[in-house]
Amino acid sequence: MRTRSEDFKFKIWIAYRLLFSKSFMQRGSAPLAFLGLILGVAALVAAMAVMSGFEETFKNALTDVTGHVQVVRRGKLVDDWGDFSKKLKSIEPRIESMMRFAYAEAVLAHKGQVSGILFQGVEQADLKSVLQLENRIKFGALKMDAENVVIGMGLAKRFQLKINDSMYIVVPLATPFDKSGFRRQAKPFKVSGILDFGKNDWNERLVIGDLAALQDLTQIGNRYTGAFIKMEHRDQSQEASARLLQRLGPSFAVMDWYDVNRNLFEAVRIERVIIFFVVFIIVVVAAFNISSTLYVFIRQRYSDIAILKTLGLSAKDIRKIFVGQGILVGVIGTIAGYFLGFLLCFGFMVLQNHFSLISGAVYKIDEIDVHLRAIDLLTIGISTIALCFVATLSPAIKGSRLEVVEGLKNG
Amino acid sequence: MDNRNQMPENPMGYLLEAHDIFKNYPTGATELPVLKGVSLQIQKGEAICLLGASGAGKSTLLQILGTLDRPTSGNVTFRGEDLFKMSDEELSQFRNQKMGFVFQFHHLIQEFTALENVMLPALIAGEKRIDIAEKAYSWLKFMGLEDRVDHYPNQLSGGELQRVAIARALIKDPEILFADEPTGNLDSENSLKIQQLFFELRQKLGLTLIVVTHDLQFSGLFPRVFKVKDGRFAQ
């Protein structure tokens, strides 16, 4: 006697042979129903990949440029890095590495043009262990010292700055004895690298240089604004930031990469769910098509159902065969849909290289990767196969209830 | 008077018995009686013929004897066991193990080759392809179809199709072979070949043969003939 798995294989074999028969597949409705399912799955794969790609691109941009968590002293600068870093590590032992930084609102001046910028100074020694700025280089090199800085690509474009071009960074300094209340401090810097920070407002405003150069320009001595922190794993960021905030108290602002753009991430999360359900409607419609096609198929195969029953298949077996057909359609449609979806993703990437599909002003990033997440593919696959299974139930039950005598008359 | 339908003595018990079979078909608000209290007993190895005009109820009786249809009342027993008390699954398995069927139309599955069609009942029974392929081939060879093993039904002639259907009916070594107008769709030459084949098989395998026909010449070959008329056995 057959084992259960052999019995399953036998039923799938019959289901497959009947389903992919020339007589059935050459009828227009069956391939079209199949195509509808494949297109639905492909659309889902592509939509989810683009949404995940957007989220992932944005996450990478944030963690490359600001680390996993940033701690900033409110209204005051921090003095001693040794004590402060030890304190942070004692609060959150999962910190892998950290780096102090300082920033100043400044003005960039070049060839008669001026624009407000955010000048950020980073500690060179710890830079590579905390941030991944090297991933962001578009032109030039990551050289930051007393004379060199890197700038965002939007800023470079606006000021027509190229590698090794000189420009001035101007900062206002408080002067308590002056009636105007401040004086300007300017210093020339060379552009050593042009970076795509991955976020439109950073590309338009951010200039990163050496911490000592910033401290010198802004005359803050050895003091700094706060620290960029890299956790052992990105997923620990939220928990770590909550713990640090609680222990450091209200004089510190603590933000993880998610907090930096919480609204956007929340919107993306909701959009992802909505898009899934909207695009899934295509799969639902395709499943209805499959159901109606199977009804027609069963009507056409009354004689075969009758003879299979005559030869010893029970109503339950017949039901399993037709449900097997539904699962087969679901599995094959899903696999084919995956491949078509991958092609669509590839097409999207190609198109993106030639045309500007994303508005940086609206979405904060100009270009996104497509990111195929296993959980998305799994959800799409399981939902599609489950839907095909449900869609097949009704025709399968109808087929299984066929009276042999009726079927034989259809011979 | 034709007395060939007199019951033979049966001290050992009958193989198949039908008791007071009624069958009505609903036709709107009323019911159309097709069988009106038919009883018969069949011994192992017998060959019986159900003879009658179109619409007399002979095919309905064969379908009930073969458990393909249920009677409105009455029962059918196999070695004393009431077949219609079995569940659908038990009955399907019983049919697979004990009964073979041949119909007027071959009812071969178009997507399967001749060999696969013959193997089908054994595959349904849970036997492995590798174990039954040789037996299926032997039956096709016996039918003179060894060159048609890999042909699909649409590549075979009417006579060949019917011989494949007979091979399929025999693959599980059934105790009873039911045939409903098996020559009704064939020319006279093929018809004669199939008739001879049935009796050759009966002799070779000791099969119990129950055949429905309206062909007097064919019915003349049977030792017992039941004439069916208006849902009853005619005297």
Describe this structure in words.
The complex is a heterodimer of chains A (411) and B (235). Helix content of chain A is 58%, strand content 19%. By secondary structure, chain A is α+β, with helices and mostly antiparallel strands. Chain A folds into 2 domains: 4-61 and 264-410, no CATH class; 75-249, no CATH class. Chain A has a 6-stranded mixed β-barrel, surrounded by 4 helices. In chain A, strand 6 (166-174) and strand 7 (182-195) form a beta hairpin. In chain A, helix 1 (4-19) packs across helix 13 (315-354) and helix 3 (29-66) crosses helix 13. Chain A is elongated and about 110 Å long. The mean pLDDT of chain A is 87. Helix content of chain B is 34%, strand content 26%. In chain B, strand 9 and strand 10 form a beta hairpin. In chain B, helix 3 crosses helix 4 (129-142). Chains A and B meet through helix 1, helix 12, helix 13 and helix 16 of A and helix 2 and helix 3 of B.
Set down the secondary structure blueprint.
The complex is a heterodimer of chains A (411) and B (235).
Chain A: H1 4-19, H2 22-25, H3 29-66, E1 69-73, H4 81-91, E2 95-110, E3 113-122, H5 124-130, E4 137-140, E5 148-152, H6 153-159, E6 166-174, E7 182-195, H7 200-205, E8 206-210, H8 211-218, E9 226-231, H9 237-248, E10 252-256, H10 257-260, H11 262-300, H12 302-310, H13 315-354, H14 360-363, H15 374-400, H16 404-409
Parallel strand pairs in A: 3-8, 5-7
Antiparallel strand pairs in A: 1-9, 1-10, 2-3, 2-6, 2-9, 4-7, 5-8, 6-7
Chain B: E1 16-27, E2 30-42, E3 47-52, H1 58-65, E4 73-78, E5 81-82, H2 88-98, E6 99-102, H3 114-124, H4 129-142, H5 158-170, E7 176-180, H6 188-205, E8 208-213, H7 216-219, E9 224-229, E10 232-233
Parallel strand pairs in B: 3-8, 3-9, 6-7, 7-8
Antiparallel strand pairs in B: 1-2, 1-4, 4-5, 9-10
